[in-house]
Design brief:
The complex is a heterodimer of chains A (401) and B (81). With 401 residues, chain A is α+β, with helices and mostly antiparallel strands. Helices cover 38% and strands 22% of the residues of chain A. The radius of gyration of chain A is 25 Å and the shape is elongated. Chain B starts with 8 loop residues before the first strand and ends with a strand. The chains are: A alpha+beta (401), B alpha+beta (81).
Chain lengths: 401, 81
């Protein structure tokens, strides 16, 4: 889940990382008061969970509190990328001597966090890494043992930063790494980390993203920030498919189903899940030229009704010609229950299961019973002797290109 | 008694057992997926739940021999005692 900038600021501030004297407000008159309190020129920044604020006119500079009020009024009415702002951040226009970049990001390939630092902040780190690779320091670290200053020092030193700057930056990076570890973050970024004219360092902007599954563990942090359970913080509005699947899931406590179709426009519906199987199988389909119509996850032994409900939603998506029912190996989720669910979905929609189910590959609990059910409806059962890759390939082959 | 909307599962209650108030109570209690309902002392079958049967056989075990049969419509076999 993503945090607004003003929340990310609070997170880094709580960790002891210096920030400017800022204020988050939801109306223009308050913006004026905060600007007056700050004194001097200010920056008014839209608080939206999307990028491109500057280009869209969501960041404006003000020399007076009156100007801050006027800008805040404009920005509060400004939709950016389909998002209306939650409010505006009023920030002093800092006298910056140099901008740096600091972040900790989860590296899914290495399965470890990576600390990144650059002495060229304020711009996209990807651009810096491409054009000035010698200005980017990086190192992976363990998420299990506490982060130490020397690890931060090694990363900063890679960029050639030494002396007083190195000494001041290191504790900030260490605190950022701890924010990442303690807050179950997937991204903790300060850009820019600014060195002011007086030699002090402050986080001028921060971007935080937390692992969604960590919400129960991070209840205190979320409560402190005033974030309620109802705030999903998804990056996009749920599609009708996503809403329908979520409603089916919520209506029945047995098992869990999830369905996403934002960004998917293919013709092969996926009813997939189990132990990392969803990602693996989606990749396997795509790698073999298939075009998934959706992404889904089934787990925790759902009811027949729930499996049926998901399969029906997938089958009713525009463009879906067949579904692939595939999982890695199930232990809790029962093969026969899922088989009943998907067969029932086909029948209730007036479709022939043998023609509609491109492949059924779920090895594991109650697979013999599942195979009997499928056999009755002319659907071949694939056990663990068929690899996930081959099952995905078989599904792709059965879809007309 | 066999009046089902199940695609995969049917249950059959003997005529004698259908009116057994104690059995009706017990079946409602043991079934984990709410296929049975105590309908004022008679054994009721919640037909829309039939396909949720997890083949646990608790109903078969809770009833006298021959009173409850769970039929797997997809392979023609029956769970009974």
């Amino acid at each position: 889940m993503r945090f607004y900038e003003f929340e990310a600021r609070q997170i880094v501030e709580r960790a002891g990382i210096p920030v400017t004297k800022y204020g988050f407000v939801t109306d223009a008159a308050e913006a004026r008061k905060v600007a007056a309190d700050i004194g001097g020129p200010t920056v008014i920044k839209s608080q939206v969970l999307t990028g491109g604020r500057m280009k869209a006119g969501g960041v404006k500079f003000a020399d007076t509190p009156e100007e801050a009020e006027a800008h805040a009024a404009d920005i509060l009415e400004l939709e950016i990328g389909g998002h209306m702002p939650k409010g505006v951040l009023v920030d002093p226009k800092a006298q910056v001597k140099q901008e740096y970049y600091a972040s900790v990001v989860w590296d899914g390939t290495e399965k470890r966090p990576m600390l990144l630092f650059s002495d060229m902040g304020g711009i996209d780190i990807e651009e810096v890494a491409e054009t000035h690779p010698d200005h980017v320091g990086r190192a992976h670290f363990s998420n299990l043992i506490p982060f130490s200053d020397y690890q931060a020092k090694q990363v900063v030193a890679q960029t050639g930063v030494t002396g007083r700057q190195l000494t001041r930056i290191v504790p900030i990076l260490t605190r950022l790494a701890r924010v990442f570890q303690d807050g179950d973050m997937t991204l903790a970024e300060i850009n820019p980390l600014a060195e002011l004219e007086d030699g002090s360092f402050v986080a001028l902007d921060a971007h935080m993203e937390m692992e969604n599954e960590a919400r129960p563990r991070q209840k205190k942090l979320l409560a402190d920030l005033g974030i309620g359970d109802e705030e999903t913080r998804e990056g996009h509005e749920p599609t009708p498919f996503e809403e329908a699947v979520a409603a089916i899931d919520a209506a029945d406590h047995r098992g869990v189903i999830q369905g996403k179709d934002t960004g998917f426009h293919g013709n092969l519906g996926l009813v997939i899940g189990a132990g990392g199987g969803s990602l693996t199988l989606t990749d396997a389909v795509r790698s073999q030229g298939g075009k998934p119509a959706n992404y889904s996850e089934i787990g925790g032994n759902p009811s027949v009704a729930k499996a049926c409900g998901l399969a029906k939603e997938v089958l009713q998506k525009d463009g879906v010609e067949k579904i692939a029912v595939m999982m890695s190996i199930v232990s809790n989720t029962r093969v026969d229950i899922v088989a009943r669910g998907v067969i029932k979905a086909c029948l209730e929609l007036g479709k022939d299961p043998a023609e509609t189910i491109a492949v059924f590959r779920i090895p594991g609990a109650w697979e013999e019973e599942g195979a009997k059910i499928l056999s009755k409806y002319g659907v071949e059962f694939n056990d663990r002797t068929t690899s996930m890759w081959d099952a995905a390939g078989e599904a792709v082959e059965k879809i007309p290109s | 008694m066999s009046d089902t909307t199940g695609i995969f599962i049917d249950v059959e209650i003997s005529a004698e057992a259908a009116g057994d108030a104690e059995l009706a109570r017990r079946l409602e209690e043991v079934c984990p997926v709410d296929i049975y309902k105590d309908e004022g002392g008679r054994v009721g079958v919640v037909r829309e739940n039939l396909d949720e049967c997890v083949l646990c056989e608790l109903c078969v075990e809770a009833a006298p021999p021959g009173a409850v049969k769970v039929k797997k419509l997809y392979d023609g076999t029956t769970l009974e005692r």
